[in-house]
Structures are given as C-alpha cells and as structure tokens.
Amino acid sequence: MAPEGNEEDCYCDADDDDYESYYGTEEDSESEYGGSGGGGVSDDDGDQQAMETNDDEDKERGEGYDFETEDDVRRCQDEVTARMSELLSVPRGFAAAFLRHCRWDAEQLQNEWFSDEWRIRGAVGLAPGRGAVPTALNDRPLDCGICFDRSAPGEMRSAGCPHYYCHGCWRGYIAAAVGDGPRCLLLRCPDPRCPAPVVRELVDAVAAGADRARYAVFVVRSYVEEGTSKYVRWCPGPGCALAVRSRPGSRPYEVSCRCGHVFCFRCGEDAHRPASCDTARAWAAKCRADGETTSWVLANTKHCPRCRRAIEKNQGCNHMTCGAPCLHEFCWLCLGDWDKHAGNNYHCNRYAADRAEFTGEKAQRRQGRASLVRFLHYYERWTAHAASLAKARQDLDGLRCGGGLDGFAAAVGVPPTELDFLAEAYAQVIEGRRVLRWTYAHVYHLDPARDNVEFCEYLQGEAERSLEQLHDCAELERNKLRENVAVYAVAYPAGYAAGKFAEFREKLSNLNLVTRNHFSKLVEGFESGMAEVVS
Ligand SMILES: [Zn+2]
Ligand SMILES: [Zn+2]
Ligand SMILES: [Zn+2]
Ligand SMILES: [Zn+2]
Ligand SMILES: [Zn+2]
Ligand SMILES: [Zn+2]
C-alpha cells in the first residue's frame, strides 16, 4: 500500500541541512486544506506518546495529524474534482484525468491549463476536436469494432470518439483493465490508434457493479498515492484502511495509527526516529545486502561467558542470569558482566575494535573482516532491540487484554486501577526500544571525521542503560515480586505484600521518569546535532 513509485519526489525532497529537512518536513499553506474538514477524527489515545515530554515539543512536532477513512478522502477528492470541473468547464471525468495528470495538484492544473490548455488536453488523450463528452451513444445502427455484431441506435458507446462498441464488449474491456490494477486509470479507447481516455462516466455507464466499485477505489487511492500532497498518506499497516492527514502548520513525522502500526509519515516505512529517512533507507539496503552473512547473529542461543552453558533468550530485557549453580549475571548483547551495565561506565552500545572475545569478533577481524564485524555490532543491536520490543509488546498485551493486570493486582492485593504505572512503563519500554534500535542505524552511518560520534554514543548509552533497568524492573522484578508474595505472604504479617508492592511501584515509576528524560535528550541530540548522515 505504500506509494513506492513516487515517494522520492513526493515525500523525500530534503536537501538542505536544517531540522526541517532532516525529516524533510515542509509547510505549505496552500490548497489541500481548503475545505477538507472531512470528518477527520482526532486520536486521543496517549499510549504511544510516552516520548513527548514537554508542551513545547508537543506543539512543535507532536501528533499534529488526524485520521481519515477512505470516505473522508473521497469527499475531499470529489470536492476538488467538482471545483476544477466547474472552473475549466469540462465534465468531471475529464477534470479527474487532468488532475491526476497534475498529480492532484489543483493549482498546478490551473497554471498549466491557462498557459496551454491543449498541451494538457493532449497529455490525457484529448486531441483537438475531441473531449466534449466522456461518452456518447450511437445514433444509427453500427457494427461493434470488437465482436462485429450489429447493434441498434443507443445500444453502443464510445469514449467520446468515433469508435463505438457494444455494451458487452465494453464491460469485458473494462473488467480486464480493472483486473490489471491501478493502471486502469490510464485506460484508452479500444481502437489502438485512438488515445481517447476512458473516464469515470463511461465506466459507470457500462461496467459491472464490482468493477465500478474497484475502479472507484483506484481513483481514491490515486489521490493519496500519486498526489503531490505531503499532507495525506495511507497507513501502511497490514489490513488498515485509514489515511493520515497532517494538520495545517504541523509537521508530523511519526504516526501512531489506531491499528497499532507506527510509521514514518514522510517515507511510509516503519517508524525510524531518530534516524532520517535517508539513513533508514541506506540501512535497510545494507541489511538486505549483508543479511545472509549476518543471519547467524540472530540465533537465539549464546553461551554463558563464565561456564559456557548454552543460554536461550526468552525475555525482553538483556539482563541474563545463568542457571544454578553458576548464576552468573551477564549482558545478552556484549556478554559482559551485568554489573558494568549499571554504573557510570556503560559501554555496551559502543563499537570497540578490541572487545568481544566471546563473540569471536577478534578472530574474524584478524581474517580481515573488520567492516563486516563493525556492521555486525550495529546489526545485532538493531535486531535485538526489535526482538525486545516485540516481547515487551506481547507482555503489555498480556497485561491489558490477557487478564495479566487483574491477576497481578489480585496477587499483590491492590485494585487493577492502581496499575497504570505498569502499563506506562511498558509503553515507554516499547517506544524506547524502537528509538534505540534506529540510533544504531544512525550511528553506523556517522562519519567519525565529521560527526560527533562520541556524543551520540554517550546519549545512546545513557538512554540504553536506563531503558535496560526499566525493562528489567517491569519484567523480571515484577515476576519476582509476584513469586515472593505468593511464597512469603502466608508466613509474614499482612503488610508484607503492600510494602513490597509500594517499593516496586516507586522504583518502576522513578525508572520510568529517568528513562523518559534520557530519551528526550537522546532524540533531541540526534535530531538537532546532525542533519543528514548519509549523503
Ligand atoms: Zn461487441
Ligand atoms: Zn476511439
Ligand atoms: Zn493503520
Ligand atoms: Zn521516513
Ligand atoms: Zn554460567
Ligand atoms: Zn552489554
């Protein structure tokens, strides 16, 4: 559903260095908004907005968008089509063809039309002398140009040109075109020498009901997918039919759709903040190119760095604990001691040429594969954060919809309504994992000679360290708390569970605050300091 073809010109026209063009946002007060108010409903669901930390930022680049259904989009399109039809004194079907030729930009159409009407008429197949009507009936008996059957007056049609066909042949001709996809919008008269366009009026007059409906869908989709409008695009989420329209003057670049899909408003790909669209694209290309050779890092099994026992990861956070009697606590990603991940000396995120003896990086480097090894460092973290994100989302779903919150509330003896802080922490974990993930794509593309890699890694490390603690607390400590309460509540006085729960709540809430703070600094730092890292 993502408009692959024209996204270059359409959405990614960033070329200077300021923040605006980092995401390629642009403000344009003209046209599109005209009479839109097409029933867009604002989305008040705040879950995904955990990142938004201050009002200023909200105003600057907060939500700033509304959702529209296909009907809303159609109304908007119908309105501009009707307006142009009247202004240019042409039938609506032709107005739509002209508009489509100008990528649904009414202003451009007016300019082109009034500077050279015949050029644009010619471009859609309306030669001089043609194009008075979108379709005509025969006024005398004629032979159909396709099946050669003779039909009485009024039983054949043309696309406004002199080539008449019977209704049955038209129906088949249009059905085949519609079955072929959106190119049916470019359909011409069946006579191979005739460029007369087949437009809406003709389709509506002769096509079967199902084909008319499909044609109508292609028309409305074209408005969004082929339009120059930077203000509206379809949600690319699987099965989602919503469009997203940015509000006048706002600059959305990351959209949380109601279907749950989070995507970049500019390029339509999965959300990749704080990496720019170009960086995300370059990274995706790199992953495609080197995906085969790197797939081994996706293995879910590693070995405990102390006892070499195979450890499988089935949790979200990276704090691993080996089984008894080893009980060694280590980091899944760098295999370093977990202790080193809490203090001030957090280095897990940094690519160090002399590290990671356990991952075999040294040996590989000796074989002259330094660039691959470097890529692997970032690639593994990029994929690991995605896996952790998926696990966190699964946990959050289980808490919300799978009765998890109620169960936990009952276990610790509080009403479920007092557990909002837990869902909030998870929302932050999810958002944070997504952001961190893309910081690795970003840092990978940095140029040490030009960019402040050190500073980026510092921000990234701080954010990651706090996120790991937050995730650890929300996931592992919550489970531990629940177990402990079950085990000890009988033996201890009544206040045991309440006390432990209060401790847990305070710790998690504090970690959430700290993490939020780190991430707003991280995003701000990444987005302001470096405009574009891929050239
Ligand atoms: Zn026929
Ligand atoms: Zn013709
Ligand atoms: Zn959606
Ligand atoms: Zn993008
Ligand atoms: Zn071990
Ligand atoms: Zn680590």
From TrEMBL:
It is an enzyme of class 2 (transferase). Its cofactor is Zn(2+). PROSITE patterns: TRIAD, ZF_RING_1. It catalyses: [E2 ubiquitin-conjugating enzyme]-S-ubiquitinyl-L-cysteine + [acceptor protein]-L-lysine = [E2 ubiquitin-conjugating enzyme]-L-cysteine + [acceptor protein]-N(6)-ubiquitinyl-L-lysine. Transmembrane segments: none annotated. Keywords: Metal-binding, Repeat, Transferase, Ubl conjugation pathway, Zinc, Zinc-finger. SUPFAM superfamilies: RING/U-box. Its EC number is 2.3.2.31. Residues 140-352 form the RING-type domain. Residues 1-31, 42-58 have a biased composition (Acidic residues). One of its GO terms (biological process) is protein ubiquitination. Pathway: Protein modification; protein ubiquitination. GO terms for molecular function: ubiquitin protein ligase activity; zinc ion binding. Residues 1-72 are annotated as: Disordered. Belongs to the RBR family. Ariadne subfamily. Might act as an E3 ubiquitin-protein ligase, or as part of E3 complex, which accepts ubiquitin from specific E2 ubiquitin-conjugating enzymes and then transfers it to substrates. This is RBR-type E3 ubiquitin transferase. It comes from Panicum virgatum (Blackwell switchgrass).
